[in-house]
Design brief:
Layout lengths: L2 H4 L4 H14 L5 E2 L11 H12 L12 H15 L8 E4 L2 H12 L5 E6 L5 H8 L4 E6 L8 H7 L4 E7 L11 H13 L3 E5 L25 E6 L12 E5 L1 H14 L5 H7 L10 H19 L6 E2 L7 E5 L7 H12 L1 E2 L1 E2 L10 E5 L4 H13 L5
Parallel strand pairs: 1-11, 3-4, 3-5, 5-6, 6-7
Antiparallel strand pairs: 2-8, 7-8, 9-10, 10-13, 12-13
Helix pairs in contact: 3-10, 5-6, 5-9, 11-13
The structure holds pyridoxal-5'-phosphate.
Length: 385
């Protein structure tokens, strides 16, 4: 593998880091770069985890994951999907990213093709190349309104397609695959005997009455399905590094072998504490979603008043992926200029696919007052002036 070519610096961190340096020099920074929830992890998770640590759950766990947690995850998914997974079909991983990477490493073989939907989550291409350097990535580019073009998707599948890696609800666009789009992916995967690796990390953060359709509902492709999920976004647990994959048993077995050789297990007391997630009502979610909806309402109205931005209102998640083509510069140049002049950190669209160099991603996972401050600065900002 050509490491330098395939595994560049994550552009989401590049501008966050530059912003951090400016902050250290005393400049005011408005951080709309990373998708880190500004909410607190629920107290019951913190308390259960501290108790687990005090009770001595500080040694290795089963490499596949703490059995009680895997059982609870399987039960929760069975209820949601009307499925019959067991704890043996679940692996607990240090974050959702690790679940996606281990899935890719378990599934891909030399020369396989894998479909990504562009714009994609920033780490997907590097993960594919790290998992299987000879894999061929086939991008299906969304339309400018972020809908999935049926013909483009159909054209991407062929007999060499081993998998499609898909993220719904989506980062960076905030789109949610419709039921019809989901069913089309299922149909094409089935016809081509391809795996679906579905990253559903934003499933609980859907706004304005839109509905998320999980691939888990399509148990007819159970043998070719891996769902990756976790608590980073829904329970504001990004720093805990906790996620899981549930799905095709033979793939989970291979993922466990990878975990045995790479990280042994996910932090034991965190897994034990995380069982509390399934024993408490997720009462924080509704106010959390309402707060994000209010921010979207505000930001959407204000962004669309700016002469140099066109924004498609997100249906889910933490991000606005806005069109800056009217400015007439590439996304890295725009983000650098915006940071220098206003202190607003954002993420260049090119990070999410080569076709998106005229877009920029803003995070709304910041308090409303920060968004208001950003809007005031954006109103007075003009590129190059
Ligand atoms: C689509 C997607 N998948 C995975 C992750 C990472 O999740 P984790 O922090 O649990 O590894 C993110 C975080 O931004 C994401 O947006």
């Amino acid at each position: 593998m050509h490491f330098e070519k395939e595994v560049g610096e994550s552009l989401t961190y590049k501008f966050a880091q530059a912003a951090g340096e400016m902050k250290a020099q005393g400049k005011e920074i408005i951080s709309l770069g990373l998708g880190e929830p500004d909410f607190k992890t629920p107290d019951y998770v913190v308390e259960a985890t501290m108790k687990a640590m005090q009770d001595g759950f500080t040694h290795y766990s089963a490499t596949q994951g703490w059995p009680e947690l895997r059982k609870l995850i399987a039960e929760d998914c069975n209820k949601a999907y009307n499925a019959d997974y067991t704890m043996n079909d679940v692996i607990v991983t240090p974050g959702i990213k690790a679940a996606v990477y281990f899935s890719l490493a378990a599934i891909l073989e030399p020369g396989d093709e894998i479909i990504l939907i562009s714009p994609y989550y920033v780490s997907y291409p590097a993960m594919v190349k790290l998992a299987e350097p000879t894999a061929k990535i086939v991008n299906v580019t969304l339309s400018r309104d972020f809908t999935l073009d049926k013909e483009k998707l159909e054209a991407a599948f062929n007999k060499n397609t081993k998998a499609i890696l898909i993220n719904t609800p989506n980062n960076p666009t905030g789109m949610v695959l419709s039921r019809e789009e989901t069913e089309l992916v299922v149909k094409l995967a089935k016809e081509n005997d391809a795996y679906i690796i579905s990253d559903e990390v934003y499933e609980k953060l859907v706004y304005d009455g839109f509905k998320h359709t999980s691939f888990g509902l399509y148990q007819e492709i159970k043998d070719r399905l891996i769902i990756c999920n976790g608590y980073s976004k829904s329970h504001a647990m990004t720093g805990w590094r906790l996620g899981y994959a549930i799905g095709a048993h033979d793939v989970i077995v291979k993922m466990n072998k990878l975990q045995q050789h790479i990280n042994t297990n996910t932090c034991t007391f965190i897994q034990v504490g995380a069982c509390s997630i399934y024993k408490n009502e997720p009462v924080h979610i509704r106010p959390y979603v309402k707060e994000l909806e209010d921010r979207i309402e505000y930001f959407d109205t204000e962004l669309n008043k700016l002469p140099y931005i066109q924004a498609v209102r997100p249906k889910a998640g933490f991000f606005y992926f806005v069109d800056i083509s009217k400015v007439g510069v590439d996304s890295n140049t725009f983000c650098a200029d915006l940071l220098k002049k206003t202190g607003i950190a954002s993420t260049p669209g090119i990070a999410f696919g080569p076709e998106w160099d005229d877009h920029v991603r803003f995070s709304i996972a910041v308090p409303m007052a920060t968004l208001e401050r950003a809007v005031n600065l954006l109103k007075n900002y003009r590129f190059g002036e």
